[in-house]
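lol so apparently i was supposed to do this last week
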Amino acid sequence: MGLFDVFKKGLSKTRGLVSEGLTRISAGMGRYDEDMLEELEALLVQADVGVGASLHIIDAVRKNIKSTGDDSQKAVMHTVKKEIIDILGPKQTLSLEDNSLNIILMVGVNGTGKTTTAGKLCLKYKSLGKKVMLAAADTFRAAAIEQLEEWGKRTNTPVISQTVGSDPAAVCYDAIHAAISRRADVLIIDTAGRLHNKQNLMDELSKISRVIEREAPSACIMPLLIIDATTGQNAVIQAEVFSKAVRLNGIGITKLDGSAKGGVAIAVAYTAKAPILLAGLGEGVEDLVDFDSEIFTESLIPELSE
Ligand SMILES: Nc1nc2c(ncn2[C@@H]2O[C@H](COP(=O)(O)OP(=O)(O)OP(=O)(O)O)[C@@H](O)[C@H]2O)c(=O)[nH]1
Ligand SMILES: [Mg+2]
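anyway here it is w/ guanosine-5'-triphosphate bound
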């Protein structure tokens, strides 16, 4: 399956919502007046694009109609797509540095898909011939360590872990030194899910991050925030708070397939300083892909005849 098909299939719920809405709004008229623009704005908000980004997009549409006089559905959609692509920014990927240890630190609130994404990335880098190691720095639950060890077995990757309840920063310390001495290319560190409004948990994350920077000063350190698209606008707040605790390299949005809230990627991109690097469009290993602004947008906004 090509990348466009992966996005299109994964975003089918949001696409369905948008498609239905557009049909309802235009209802055969094909020309946009002010009432229809307001309905279009409401539709974007409903698809979880967020109020700020939706206003920004509709303002651009309004300006375009004023300057060109073209109020056709085609012209309106063209501007909507262009603005969304602009907000999402140019394609950026989670890229590894050659001849260096690359440390990917998975962070995020509970259940967003950190461990699964760690496993999928591990599989991807292994298949590219990289020497990968995993670190189980989610020491809160035995099941979390087991879940990562399962990925280790599945991908034939060493997993550095300690007992439940041990200091996650100590696991990172061990893992970094093991990765350095074994000359690993990639170390993927899984951390526990933490609520962004629990200050002690966010402080713990800052500590983990400091230990990594201290112990691996020459490594390429990439903290990756994993957010769950089904949480809607809360993801925007998560991105803001986590970026204060760690210097985020990028964001991965998972479960874009799970609801009609796929537009949240736009809301996050509109406010977050870190770029969206990964998209989780399903539970399968092949459903984790590099985020692509243009393909995302084309998959979200159906063609007029659909
Ligand atoms: N539909 C769908 N499910 C996903 C996706 N990514 C992850 N999941 C599922 O989300 C669930 C939670 O994933 P985990 O990887 O355990 O999440 P986590 O962030 O490690 O959770 P905690 O460690 O408890 O904070 C699992 O059932 C995954 O299969 C995705 O892109 N789409
Ligand atoms: Mg986990």
